[in-house]
Amino acid sequence: MGLVEALGLRPYSKTIRAIGLTLRGDVHTPPSRFGPSSLRQLRPRYSVPLWLGRAPRGRLVPITNLFNYRQPPPERGWSVRVTDVRDFRGGRCTYDSHNGTDFAVPPGTLVVAAAPGLVLRVSSEFDRGGLKVLIDHGDGLATSYNHLARATVRPGQRVRRGEPIALSGYSGIDALVTFPWGPPHVHFNVWIGGRHVDPFSPDDRPSLWRAHNAPTPASGDALDDDAFEPTRWDAEALDAIARAARHEGSRREIEGGATLAERAGAALLHLTYYPTRFDRPPPLYGQPAPRRPHLDLPFSHRDYDGVVFVDDARD
After folding, report:
1. Sign (positive or negative) of CA dihedral 138, 101, 306, 199
2. Which uninterrupted H or E stretch holds 102?
3. Long-range pairs of 90-94 with CB within 8 A, sequence gap ≥ 24
4. Contact, 203 vs 212, CB < 8 A?
5. Domain boundaries, the chain
6. Residue-wise pLDDT tens digits, 18-70
7. For the domain with range 3-226+291-305, which CATH number is right: 2.70.70.10, 2.170.16.10, 3.30.70.1400, 3.40.50.2000?
């Protein structure tokens, strides 16, 4: 895999436009915010071996950033600063606007579906996570896998638990700014009812991981379809969300999907990655199911056994 593919730099014209959006914003999208504390994203101890194709923690995936429970309002712009942060353990392994989990893996690592589902969208937004795959798991649960180098699935495809969906990279502006000192990783988002949630649990509430707060890959014997019923999307709700979009590009993508599922994938992405582009949109989902253990680590059991938090690593 070449560096250009891993970083998701093509097409170059789209990359340049995305850099401008990140730095300057537009009438509907505030610019991103950086500062000296953003340098915490530079982890040479992990990044250098990873870019060289080696796993610095062996069969454990390093987690370099967790979900922040004190995220600032999106109207202030996406912030990579570390000002007011708290991860699920009460620590600071995160940054201001971080809404997912960062799994640091060498580019070219096999990425798999964390649960059975239906692929809603495969797209690249260089200013928001690069190449990504969005999957609907039913019952209001959805996941996305960001900073990919190559997707191996298409919208409308059903996937089994543990089925390969992509090869990892570090696509997006994050890597362009931090290369080679920023660790390549898969940014893993989880939504329930269209809202970002932490798959880890800080208290007695159920974790979304089947192995509680110590996620593991699905084993070879456990790769099954489970009981999966795709979400039934409401065309009228999608029409109303499109009308609520003040940004022409977002509205066009939500209206232009070939199927209701593809329209829903566009709506989920734009509502959550670009929320300031909408004026009081209606909910995308009805009443979602409660939290329950359902997800596995999005990597193959042939490559990894579990995870390690980088701020817990001592050796």
Report:
1. negative
2. strand 101-104
3. 90/202, 91/66, 91/311, 92/311, 93/63, 93/64, 93/65, 93/66, 93/309, 93/310, 93/311, 94/65, 94/66, 94/67, 94/68
4. no
5. 3-226+291-305, 232-284
6. 889 998 999 999 999 999 999 999 999 999 999 999 999 999 999 999 999 99
7. 2.70.70.10
